[in-house]
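Q&A log
Question type: sequence-to-structure
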Amino acid sequence: MTKISVAVCTYNGEKFLRQQIDSILNQTLKVDEIVVCDDGSTDKTSRILGDYQKKFPEIFRIYINEKNLRSVKNFEKAVSLCTGEIIFLSDQDDVWEKNKVEVFNTFFTLNKQIDVLCSNGHIINENNQKQDLYTVWDVPEFLCINKREIDYFKIFATIGNFATGAAMALRKSILPQVLPFPNIEGLHHDEWIALTSSEQKKFAFLNEKLFSYRIHNEQQVGGISYPKNEASKEKLINRFDYNKKAKTFRDFKIKFRTLNDKERKFSSFLEKNTDPKVKRFVETVQKERQVLEQNLKSEHFLFSLFFKYFYR
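Response status: OK
Response body:
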């Protein structure tokens, strides 16, 4: 049997923590260990965790950080302490569908070449009510329905990330390639894992909605949902379809700005560190920008002179 771990990071999560932990414990395929790293909570989070550890001592391993590590490094610690062959990442305020672990485990079993897997999910509010919205997790399905090619690495490296940590599980065997998580401003651990695995064609995405992502005032990361209408759908398709050529001044402006931000993010890391992966990420962005510059020159020659000066 495959040993399954869950890496949970907590910080002042008393309001929703019990519901999330219960959803993990009540899976159709039981998990073997839950590793929790608390980042110095000042509310009742530690007491709640202690209650679970007393009730399930064979499952829970609780670590209280001596100093606040913040999200990325706290997840790095939690993941590194897991002993399972499959490691799920978990936020403190979401809710899992009962069959999430079973579906993921089956996929990993049948697809040995995949090391990182994400799924679609619901949006819920503070009162556990599901919201009828589109999300960035709908992008793969939208692209498939519209017969658009999906190259996960190219999307993650040059456009944006929809591989959310709350929806992610990975094989322990990939940890040497992703740990330690780099200190790159604006780069979260889930994006780093997605970039690393997708470059090697070891990333996959399930359209099945296997968790509920909670939107509330205290959350650290949001901005992933959109009104459920055709305009939002078209906007998401156009944004993540890397083969769609820019036509208008605004199109080129958005694409150049995105590519430049990506390059600056990776290049700032390379100034102090040597990592072949990050160098390849930069090269991918640079090649994409070269193509964009050629398209701009052919479409709007005068505009190309402006962009070359202001958006390099």
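Response note: The chain is about 45% helix and 20% strand.
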